[in-house]
Design a protein that fits this description.
The chain is α/β, with parallel strands linked by helices. It has eleven helices and 13 strands. It has two domains: about 210 residues, P-loop containing nucleotide triphosphate hydrolases (Rossmann fold), CATH 3.40.50; about 60 residues, 2-Layer Sandwich (Alpha-Beta Plaits), CATH 3.30.70. It is found in: Cell membrane.
Length: about 300
């Protein structure tokens, strides 16, 4: 669980994915995947394009029926579309369509009317996603980040216990993405189970209690981001100002594996950071010092490869 987070015991729902397989003719999109999501957990599904994560998510949501295996939300099959179970589920799709020429609050009213939601809840929702000042703005006049916030508000309108978010920050600029993180964090901290798919490893590392990395329809690894990073045993990166030490001197230091010069300065990779830092200190070559270990992105690339996939 991420630092500073409070677990809401007994809230949210439990999700079970048991030997899930999804085939479309001769194509196997998901192959024998199993995992559980605990009540109140913020769970991430990560994978390259075409890895099977959206198919897995849509099956959990009940939008697709498994070819083989079983999916359950609190022990019930979501594909049966039972109304009382559907009320407990909120879904935010990759791309959301809104009604033309309706304001933000009118969009919420329309979605809320399906569930008999009182209009008094709408102001609360707009405040929760930071759109109070845009309540009377038409959707066409909202920015990309604001539209994503409204999409999430529509998924929350009936106060679900579990929320599914399929790449909610895709195509957003860094500021809008980080701003939306606060909204997603708040959704989880209110006691809801959250299942997220994303291409942004920093986002998953920041938000998720556990992540499942999938590729070619198979589950490769599942654990907390911190555990996956430790398991990778990546080299430590030591950054320095270019003028701190020459490349030849850096390469000659005991414990150094590689030395490179980038736009940010000199980068030394080592598996013996204490020795390298000690040597740099003795040479008074610590200008611009930064030290970083592996990241979830390193884990992801190690498992799935570095080639680009359209």
């Amino acid at each position: 669980m991420s630092a500073g987070r409070t677990r809401f015991v007994g809230m949210g729902v439990r999700i079970e994915v048991d030997h899930l397989t999804m085939r479309y003719g001769a194509v196997t999109a998901v192959e024998d995947i199993s995992f559980t999501v605990e009540p109140g957990e913020f769970f991430g599904l990560l994978g390259p394009n075409g890895a099977g994560k959206t198919t897995t998510l849509e099956t959990i949501e009940g939008l697709r029926e498994p070819t083989e295996g079983r999916v359950a939300i609190d022990g019930r099959d979501p594909a049966r579309r039972e109304p009382d179970l559907q009320r407990r589920i909120g879904v935010q799709l990759q791309s959301s369509a809104f009604f033309e020429r309706l304001t933000a609050v009118e969009q919420l009213q329309t979605f809320g009317s399906i569930y008999g939601v009182p209009t008094s809840r709408l102001d609360e929702l707009l405040e929760q996603v930071g759109l109070t000042e845009k309540a009377t703005a038409q959707v066409e006049d909202l920015s990309g980040g604001q539209k994503q916030r409204l999409s999430i508000a529509c998924a929350l309108v009936h106060d679900p216990e579990v929320v599914f978010l399929d790449e909610p920050t895709a195509a957003l600029d860094p500021q809008a993405r980080r701003n939306l993180w606060d909204v997603l964090r708040g959704i989880n901290e209110s006691g809801r189970t959250v299942v997220l798919t994303t291409h942004y490893m920093e986002e998953a590392e920041e938000l998720c209690d556990r992540v499942a990395i999938v590729d070619h329809g198979q589950l490769l690894q599942l654990d907390t981001p911190a555990t996956l990073i430790r398991r990778l045993d990546a080299a430590t990166r030591i950054g320095l100002a270019v003028e701190a030490i020459s490349i030849d001197e850096a390469r000659a230091l005991p414990g150094v594996q590689t030395v490179a010069v980038g736009s940010a300065g000199l980068v030394i990779e080592t598996r013996d950071a204490a020795t390298v830092l000690g040597e740099l200190g003795r040479r008074e070559a610590l200008e611009g010092l930064s030290v970083s270990k592996g990241t979830l992105e390193d884990v992801f690339l190690d498992l799935t490869g570095r080639e680009y996939r359209a």
